[in-house]
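Hi all, a correction to my earlier message: I attached the wrong file for Cytidylate kinase-like family protein. Here's the right sequence:
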Amino acid sequence: MSRIITIGREFGSGGREIGKRLSDELGIAYYDNEIISQIADRTKLAEGYVQHVMENGPSTLYPITIGRSFYMGVDPIMEQNNAIYREQSRLIQEFAEKSDCVIVGRSADYILREKHPFRLFVYAEMEHKMERCKKRAPESEHFTDKELKRHILDVDKRRARYYQFFTGQTWGDRLNYDLCINTSNYDIKELVHAIAHLVEA
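and the right structure:
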């Protein structure tokens, strides 16, 4: 089985923790937020703009002055969006060529489809996602339960929109993954051990 592992995840489901722990247990590379900074460096676009596009999906309404750089065309905003996705694809391909690895998010399951990675999708029931978010929230964050639920739904909606725009596939559809995991009632460490065993089998 491939030791290139991609992880799609709902916000608050523990997907990022699974990815990091899995990379540690298997002794392979781990890629997540550093992808944003490297894309920003390659495209000469502001890191905040790159993060906005990757978290919110393509938008022709985002102020061009925030991300303006070398990319100009008939639709400069759309060209910037496409430039970000192209660099994301190249970077993820380079990571996969270099060594076994775990890549969280970034449509990596689709980008690396010809390499047949082991594709995970991690999800959870809303109450468990809210509980996890509360435990990991910075002290300055003060969401009410209603606001937190809306935030979680908004993040997942944006991830789904981004994924569908660039892949033409439905984010979270079980047919696009090798293993879908509901983390609601399970210990993350135990899940990671089981996944690692499956990957190594």
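Sorry for the mix-up. The longest helix spans residues 76-98.
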